[in-house]
Amino acid sequence: MIKHIKTWGKHFIAPKAPMELSRNFKNIDQAGIDEITSSLKRHYFTRSIWAEKVAPEAYLSSEEGKNDLLNHLDLRLNDFRQTIIPWLNDTKNLRGANILEIGCGTGSSTVALAEQGAKVTAVDVDADSLQVAQDRCKVYGLDVKFLQTNATEAHQLLKGQHFDFIIFFACLEHMTNDERLIGLKNTWDMLKTGGLLCVVETPNRLWFFDDHTSWLPFYMWLPDKLAFLYSRYSPRKSMCNSYPKYDDKNMLSFLRHGRGVSFHEFDIAVKNVTELNVISCLQLYQREKNILRECWWRTKKEYAYESFLAKQGPRIHRAFYQPSLDLIIRKEIN
Question: Distance between CA atoms of 193 and 305, rounded to whole angstroms?
Answer without folding.
Answer: 35
